[in-house]
Amino acid sequence: MTDPAGATIRVEALTKTFPGARSPAVDTVDLDVAAGEFMTLLGPSGSGKTTTLNMIAGFEDVTSGRILLDDTDIARLPAHRRNLGMVFQSYALFPHMTAAQNVAFPLRQRKVGRAEIARRVAEALELVHLGEHADRLPSQLSGGQQQRVALARAVVFSPRALLLDEPLGALDKKLRESLQLEISRLHSELGITFVFVTHDQEEALALSDRVAVFRDGHIEQVGTPSELYETPASRFVATFLGDSNVFSGTVRGGLLDTGSTLLRCDGPDGPGCLVVRPERLRIGAGHDDGTNTLSATVTDVVYQGAFRRILVRFDDGTTGLVRDAGDAAPAATGERVEVSWKASAGVVVSEGGSVVGRDSVVPA
Amino acid sequence: MTRRTTLRRVLVGIGVLVGLWLVVPTLVVVPISFSGEDSFAFPPRSWGVDHYATFFTESSWLTSLLVSLQLAVIVTVVATLLGTLAALALDRTSFRGRGALDGLFMAPLIVPGIVVAVALYAAFLGWGLIGTPTGFVLAHTVLALPFVVVNVGAALRNVDPVLGRAAAGLGASGWATFRQVTFPIIRPGVLAGALFAFVTSFDEVVVSLFVQSPQLQTLPVRMFTSVTNEVDPTIAAASTVVLVVSTALLALVALTRRSAP
């Protein structure tokens, strides 16, 4: 491997408007990816994350904006001269070539010598533990094996960044988890920059150094997984990443008025949403001043092994979710209960975009 | 259970009968070609290979066979090249009127042969192409082109468009992608199109009758004039040769299809 360090990728005011579309698919997006960072672009389908990745890769023309790879603008460079590794959801292996020939492909384009190709192909296949399958055709490999060949092919020419477009999307849950580990290991072994697109928030939280949450063509929030989870910048981020209980209303003097009750919270005055994660709620009344307590009716209890998901309906008619680490006295469906949480466990966010509550959130 | 097996037997019987009906009249020429008599009598009263001897020695037959083979080879090359390029263009573009263009390429298959023949005759007469090799190549290419476009087009539809992106992402230029990725995948389709083009040209009679001159005749034209002007059982040998060549090539198409990935 020539240069162990990854490249920096900086996206500046990147915009893509498809012909005939009323609004841009990607709207003045700014994003900084540090050298060697694992950056995930997360969002629902149609949020612009894949279009952004395709523009970085060179598969889509840029309407306006810049894409800087180590301070060189590559936005107008054809895809085959960008020297970035790319992994696709559908593997995109060449069906008429063996695993080894697939991995050799990028080296052949770069006119690498035969002996060198053989050595590096073997090395790359070994890296993904597929050395013994070198002579198989893609049709003779399982989905997980095919994607590992695709990974080997994408890194064999030592690109300084690897772009991954929902690489685990076509795999079943078990394979997905093992390949997640594989990708994570590859990232730390190679030390190159990864830009990873997914709509799966668990995947994003598990793999990434940082996550950029996309919505309607713009980035809603960029932050580490824990920043996004603990201090979401908006209701969208809070509900997209993990489960949330959301109470909307108006904050006045450290109290959120939902219309039917007052909840203690930490946020500036004005309209806002109080977000509380389900594992921060517990069944039973709070005992001190720093807690909120609501009465509710249990509507469903779902046993999930390590924990229980308890669905409740608060007295004002809104629903909530409690994640309960299986204590001795489980709540039963239909039972009247008290639900409580520490006020400090809640985050106040705005209904729309910007942060209202804490200031530790990285602005988008 | 038994009703079902009876039904199956009846269906198999009908299938065999239809198959025989399609094939047997054609195959009658094979025993006649090995007849020792100088007539079309069937079944032949004696056997021999005299008709083949005549076919492969008499210059009018031999020349027309060579004309047909050369013509078919040239038409195969021209039609395969043009047809593959057309199919690639059709596959890569999606503009308004794309369907109409598709239809245009199919036109020679749909328009009655005699109409194409008359039209080409009228046009070629003005251009002085009647009775020329160029005229034959142009006319047969028109007829062969749809087979290439259809076969290559079908092969291209099986090429995952993401492969092109993958190749580009791995550093392959457009031409390198075509040479190393697209073409190897569509090769069976190109081959099938080429074989169909060859057979189309080799078998063609209607258009050729209009384009021919007494000096330049293809084998089917020579056979046609033979059967209308004289009673010469050599035509049975000629028919068998055409039958064997065409069947062998179409069998080859079937084989390439089967071996395709």
UniProtKB/TrEMBL annotation, chain A:
Superkingdom of origin: Bacteria
Keyword Acyltransferase carried by entry: no
Record-level Gene Ontology MF annotations: ATP binding
Keywords: ATP-binding, Cell membrane, Membrane, Nucleotide-binding, Translocase, Transport
All copies of domain ABC transporter, residue ranges: 9-241
Assigned EC number: 7.6.2.11
InterPro entries tied to this protein: AAA+_ATPase, ABC_SmlMolc_Importer, ABC_transporter-like_ATP-bd, ABC_transporter-like_CS, Mo/tungstate-bd_C_term_dom, P-loop_NTPase, PotA-like, Transp-assoc_OB_typ2
PROSITE patterns: ABC_TRANSPORTER_1 (PS00211), ABC_TRANSPORTER_2 (PS50893)
SUPFAM superfamilies: MOP-like, P-loop containing nucleoside triphosphate hydrolases
Family to which the UniProt record says this protein belongs: Belongs to the ABC transporter superfamily. Spermidine/putrescine importer (TC 3.A.1.11.1) family.
Functional note: Part of the ABC transporter complex PotABCD involved in spermidine/putrescine import. Responsible for energy coupling to the transport system.
Protein's name according to its UniProt entry: Spermidine/putrescine import ATP-binding protein PotA
Encoding gene (name): potA
UniProtKB/TrEMBL annotation, chain B:
Main location class: membrane
Pfam family, one: BPD_transp_1
The entry's keywords: Cell inner membrane, Cell membrane, Membrane, Transmembrane, Transmembrane helix, Transport
Localization: Cell inner membrane; Cell membrane
Transmembrane segments annotated in the record for this chain: 12-34, 65-88, 109-130, 136-156, 189-213, 233-255
Mode of membrane association: Multi-pass membrane protein
The keyword Cell membrane is annotated on this UniProt entry: yes
Domain ABC transmembrane type-1: 65-254
PANTHER family assigned: INNER MEMBRANE ABC TRANSPORTER PERMEASE PROTEIN YDCV
Record family assignment: Belongs to the binding-protein-dependent transport system permease family.
UniProt protein name: ABC transporter permease
Taxonomic path: Bacteria, Bacillati, Actinomycetota, Actinomycetes, Pseudonocardiales
